[in-house]
Write a structure and sequence with these properties.
The protein has 340 residues and is an alpha/beta fold. The chain has a single domain (4-326), classed as Alpha/Beta hydrolase fold, catalytic domain (Rossmann fold, 3-Layer(aba) Sandwich), CATH 3.40.50.1820. It has helices spanning 4-11, 13-16, 111-115, 154-172, 187-200, 246-263, 268-274, 293-302, 304-308, and strands at 47-50, 56-64, 67-75, 100-105, 125-130, 180-185, 208-212, 233-237, 275-278, 325-326. The chain has a ten-stranded mixed beta sheet. Residues 1-21 form the signal peptide. Residues 23-51 are annotated as: Disordered. It comes from Echria macrotheca.
Amino acid sequence: MLTILSTLLLVLPSLIGNTYALPQRNRNGGNANQGGTGQGKGQASTRVTTATDGSSILDTTVNVNGVPLRFKVSGPASEFTTLTSVTGASSAPNSTGKLGLNVLLHGDGGQSFFDFPNQAVQGNLMGVVVLAPSEQLLWGQRTGPPSGLSRPDGAADSQAVRDLVKQVLPQVIAFDPANVFFTGVSGGSLTLSGFFIPAHLSEFPNTGVLLMCGGLVPQVDVVDAAGFITNSKIHFQSTQQELELLQPAIPAAIKAYEALAAGQGLNARQIGALQTVDNTPNGGHCEFDEAGFSSGIQLISNNFASIMQGGNGAVQGINAKTVLKSVVGNENLKFAAAAA
């Protein structure tokens, strides 16, 4: 059976072009103001491994809009298409499956790509994680050293993620295109809130976006606000000791999206049902368990269904009855001093 790297060349020549492996990266970094060094030139060839729930993980690279995007997708073997090298794959390309997707954009430095905290099937969603196409592994910034909140390539990266989901993943795995959620971590949250949500979320209505430890006001024009702001869940999850540069940025993003909903005629109750916020944990950047970066992100990922899919927002490990607090009246988050 042909692998996806060779087969996609045949079935998607206009989109993919010459598909090739992206160099392996190291695991440095992990916040909105730090990036990995991008060292190492080993090739990340297509691999199939096993997820924490026993399902299959396909790790491969395709060329989207002239840029190599490495991604992992986790799901039952039978849901992968016959174009892939996954043992037991039996779905036809472009077929609709019963499960949806949770697509995660990692933080600066790429740690959550390698950790893959949203792997396995949860809440009828299969996990996808995408590696930023930059030497420093920064979403929204393809060249140069980390520059904090500035994401000059945010629009291009968001377009690439949109095209990956809409045009490439249907060749890889069968999923329900009406059930695609998104998760951001730190720099990934900046790109989602600043660029992807305003430009593309109307193409994924009635789902939602989980923004961990990061947020930006829309940096591009909002496309069809009524198509998503009136039906999409947006949750902002932060901590007490958030990074200094994010402490004003996250509240500003909250206010911007609340205003967008109000502009479409939603009242306070309706807005609060869709847009929620919490920064209860007394931890540093992304330390939602008050212990560590990766473990904190894993905690929230493990509770995705409770937060994003109609649950009560209770997260064991966070000292709050619920993290689903309405943004209305909670726009001006109170932070402690940022962690050293």
